[in-house]
Amino acid sequence: MGDVAVGARSGHDGEEHRGRPVEAADPAADSAVTSGSDSGVTEDGTTTDARGGGSGDSAPGARKQRSFWKELPILIGIALVLALLIKTFLVQAFSIPSDSMQNTLQQGDRVLVDKLTPWFGSEPERGEVVVFHDPDNWLAGEPTANPNAVQTFLSWIGLMPSAEEKDLIKRVVGVGGDTVSCEGTGPLKVNGKALSESSYVYAGNTPCSQDDQGGQFTVKVPKGYIWVMGDHRQNSRDSRYNQSDRHHGMVPVDDVVGRAIVKAWPINRWGTLPKPDTFDQAGINDKSSASAALTVAPQGIALVGAVPVALWRRRKAAVERTR
Predict the structure, then answer these.
(1) Most CB atoms closer than 10 Å: which of 1, 33, 95, 180?
(2) How far apart are CA 95 and CA 168, in angstroms?
């Protein structure tokens, strides 16, 4: 009886696993239960897994991650490119080398200069503090910096203030079309309007300097130029004292690098550099209204002249249609 029972069981197993040994099925069944994998047996007898591969396929290995030291040069390169782009198109740091802008800016301060807005056609406005390239040898006789290789590289990418470029920083007093004048000790006048400059002119200075070297003047600023002055009026070689150069003391707008917007260093002097309210007083833009009228007048004349021509053409067309 025992042999018959065993034989019947063996025959049943043979039907279920026809074509392959019985022993081969048992490990597979055990594996399916204990491993927790998604592998199984298809109707044609081949094994599959959750990745869709057959029993002969090899599982793809995990992608090997780069080591930190291999990725570091790539990260440094990206950072340098971004810093260079920011310096070229957005913001650049500059160091204040003198006392000509006291007390607004002190020697050794670091300022951030907006270089983006000029790319969209923005031009300097009265009252703004701007950085500009030396128009015509204004810095003659000034000591020349000798940065080392590291400082030169960091300056080139914008991580340090420029040491070699001959740039100046002053306040815009007049723009194209303005008449700027100084008589006696002041006040400074723009288009006939006296400026109240006590909020930014160095304490103890007078708005105008009484000397025969340029401190007394009346100038008309040409279009495309600006007239600049330092806040430390008696210690600034600005437009007043460069009237013998080829631009007559004016700074071409094309030479302006950008507008100084923030005192970034040292931390205890951090702050913005807003335009003083005195430059927004009523009447200071009178010259702008006059120039606008001159600009609009030719257009108005053209419109008035065009109306009779248009009426004549319409009448002529009507006559031709009636013929």
Answers:
(1) 180
(2) 10
76 in helix, strand or coil? Answer: helix
Global pTM reads: 0.62
Contacts of 238 (CB under 8 A, 6+ apart): 100, 170, 228, 229, 230, 249
> 244-284 pLDDT, tens per residue?
999 999 999 999 999 999 999 899 999 999 999 999 999 89
Nearest to 200 by CA among 145, 135, 138, 128: 128
Instruction: Using the structure block, give the residue that is written with the tokens 């780069």.
Output: 66
Hey, what are 78's tokens?
């990206």
Of 87, 95, 100, 263, the catalytic one is 100
For the question of residue 100 being annotated catalytic, the response is yes
- Active-site residue identified among 170, 189, 263, 287: 170
- Our answer to whether residue 199 is catalytic in this structure is no
Residue 228 CB neighbour total at 10 angstroms = 27
